């Protein structure tokens, strides 16, 4: 039997990561006594961060504990930031399984720990514009967003000012500027390529420095970046934004947050008469005991797919399809960003130049397709991330020969290579969905998900176009040996999964209203990636955070008005 | 073994105060990283390489040092590469590859005796080099390719490789994307 906690909270936040951290900060600062439930372990920065641990200290010298990883993390290992330093920031696939159909793989990266995936995120932050918020309505795809840029813009301002974003103002309508900290520098080859692109595609294509949630000036007791490089292993100077580095300490400072790690949410219980969430049922990951927590307000921030899993697992006789699912849209419309389209090429010259220090950022080419013109083959568009670097010894391990000549070849830097890697918008499709597995459960006895997701023709046309335009730009920049991509990413691999409890204007076709509030359950707000109605091509965390902060202020006003 | 290493690291790290504010300078952080590594490195070295017999270890050490020799910087032997390879063979590779590579290293002596009527260790340096180049020409499917790959990986990820050879540690604490560079020329 569940043990009901009698302690009274005003709000419960499920998840302590990118959006849960923001909900905790906003709700506690607005005066609410808030319980934050985190499924995983606490992270202690002084113990768990490893960004300054040298490679020679690792047992496998960055090659990873192969047997452990093959046994425990065969899916999680596919993440770009999974390495021998950071692998404990991902879950154990054996404890947290999910299934996919034969021949339709899906990478679901999961981070159960205080701070969630905000500890290992890519930190690139780009605003959306009305090109994105109006896209579904314009194209007649899925449902219209219930918000527009002007609704979100003040919240972008608020989030960007707090997290600290370094970037270059460019004045682009499709990629609005924010209150940026000083931009990071391009290296000599990137600056050269940027100039060539600007000259070759005036007013159309532009290469700017990445907009990144890493401080280039001290802020709120967080130090400026010292360019050691691997943010995803943690940051002892708290220079990059994460829940652990910023929002959770802010919530803690109010004295109104109770953070409960090892709290795996099994389901939400509903009051049949009001439709409101009456209790949050938790299994303690360590003791396996059941607990029930109650509050007037519940924010579901468990990450897009996990949040839809909790809603589906909250099914009852009255709601056999799950909580907040009268529209039938919970679990549907999984989107990610399609990547690995693009190209790289060698840049001659600059042989007497090198990079010192490791910049945790690259360059960005904002979307230029379907902005001022119309493509025949696809709707929406893509942006490029990438950068220039000289190859190191790793690129030459197969050099023939032995001895001092080999040592010289390995040690000396190779030619400069410039890479452009596309991140393409994906469309919401109802049949890209997750459902409860009929029999399989996780280590805590909770039904797991079956995820079915594949790229459609629009995504594949975008991917093809990325190869063409990247090669065009590299050619104009004078690159040699231009190598278009030959690979397409697996859905989910970009770790931008979203869309499984979408916002909309009509309760019959969407799960959440324009305030991230569940149509069916007025004290329930879902503000992680699940809420997204379309995917844009921009890295999405900034928009999740802005929508979270906005929803928190709305919810507290509604509480005060007595509407919840 | 890895658990012990991790525990040592944890206790060390826990003993070093890392203020959450912005008062810690990068140089101090790097120093902290070095201290942690220096203490942990001692605990980590003894177990590595224990899976190899003394004879195999001797041939392996000689071969590694000829692949990445000492010149104006230390070579593979001083960088601890043989122990790293022993560790990889025992704890990273599967049994078939482990057996194949160890048998390969053992066969160096018979190859040396066939060519020069003496053990690999007793061969002159240029004879050793000629034997290894002969193996190198066998291509990527040959066992020697694994030894060479691990020698390069082990060397360039060792403290000697990263600090002395590549000059990449400590990190400069700033970013310069237009720094001067002169490739090193060495006496071959």
Provide a descriptive summary of the structure in words.
The complex is a heterodimer of chains A (564) and B (188). With 564 residues, chain A is an alpha/beta fold. Chain A is built from twelve helices and 19 strands. In chain A, a hairpin with a 5-residue loop joins strand 15 and strand 16 (447-452). In chain A, helix 1 (18-29) packs parallel to helix 8 (243-253), helix 1 (18-29) packs parallel to helix 12 and helix 6 (149-163) crosses helix 12 (541-560). The relative contact order of chain B is 0.12. Mean pLDDT of chain B is 80; it is low at 1-49. Classes of the chains: A alpha/beta (564), B mainly alpha (188). At the A-B interface, helix 2, helix 7, strand 11 and helix 10 of A face helix 1, helix 2, helix 4, helix 6 and helix 7 of B. Strand 11 of chain A pairs antiparallel with strand 1 (176-180) of chain B.
How is the main sheet of chain B built? none
Helix residue percentage of chain A: 10-25%
Mean pLDDT of chain A: 97
Largest interface: A-B, 63 and 75 residues
* Strand residues, percent of chain B: under 5%
* Total DSSP helices of chain A: 12
Strand elements of chain A, count: 19
Shape of chain B: globular
Assembly status: heterodimer
> How many helices of chain B does DSSP assign?
8
The main pleated sheet of chain A reads as: 6 strands, mixed
Rg for CA atoms of chain A: 23 Å
Structural class of chain A: alpha/beta
Mean pLDDT of chain B: 80
Shape of chain A: globular
Helix content of chain B: 55-70%
Q: How many distinct beta strands of chain B?
A: 1
The secondary-structure element order of chain B is HHHHHHHHE
Coarse structural class of chain B: mainly alpha
